[in-house]
Design brief:
With about 200 residues, the chain is mainly alpha-helical. It has twelve helices and no strands. About 30% of the residues are buried. The chain binds a DNA duplex (13 and 12 nucleotides) through α2, α3, α6, α9 and α12.
Length: about 200
DNA sequence: AGCCAGGACTGAG
DNA sequence: CTCAGTCATGGC
């Protein structure tokens, strides 16, 4: 089955999904919408989005959703704020490391990272694997990197398609589609919608 | 009452 | 390099 046909079929069933970037009525001084997306991609690792929303809301209330604040906030406090998202020991560490990287190499300009960092650079940051790297590039940077997750593999399998590595799945989709970040954005979200519907 | 969610790292072998 | 074990909360 051709990828574009599958996309149309999924869109017909589930409609537009409204993933990132969306920020309605959340503007505080110093709020960094691009950094919030990056934070979301880490918090949602193997975790339901509903739990992540609670954690992000906590970070909003304490105004920790920008790079300098993330660096300054006490480690223990950060853990307590993100606790609803689970794995809070690991994830607090990941958020700190990511913020420090953006501070050290991009003068705390998260937008600059999302728009110009290479995939390999992100993969070298502790806590960022292939799916999180692609999610950051696609959803925070509006760059056409196709995101693969467990649902994607499951969906492929139902069509008799199976690969071994993440990059093979990624190539399977990217080789069939024009590099359109809006398309990749919707497609991945639609695959997740399909997965939840199973 | 389990099972699993919008994964990634670590340590064996 | 492959792969089980580990991390942790909340919803269903």
């Amino acid at each position: 089955m051709k990828a574009m046909d599958q996309y149309c079929e999924l869109f017909e069933r589930f409609g537009a999904q409204g993933w990132w970037p969306v920020h309605k009525g959340k503007r505080r001084p110093g709020f960094d919408p691009v950094f919030e997306i990056m934070v979301g991609t880490i918090l949602t690792q193997n975790t339901s989005w509903k739990n992540v929303e609670k954690a992000i809301e906590n970070l909003h209330c304490e105004q920790v959703l920008d790079v300098p604040s993330m660096i300054q906030v006490h480690h223990a406090k950060l853990k307590s704020l993100i606790k609803p998202a689970g794995y809070y020991n690991q994830k607090a560490k990941k958020l700190k490391i990511l913020a420090k990287h953006i501070s050290d190499h991009y003068n705390s300009d998260s937008k600059q990272v999302a728009e110009s960092a290479s995939r390999g650079e992100l993969l070298n940051i502790w806590g960022i694997g292939p799916e999180t790297a692609d999610s950051i590039l696609l959803y925070a940077g509006n760059r056409p990197e196709f995101v693969i997750d467990t649902y994607t593999r499951r969906l492929c399998k139902t069509h008799g398609i199976e690969f071994k590595t993440y990059d093979e799945y990624k190539h399977h989709f990217e080789s069939q589609l024009k590099p359109d970040y809006k398309l990749f954005n919707q497609y991945h979200a639609l695959i997740v919608a399909w997965g939840k519907n199973q």
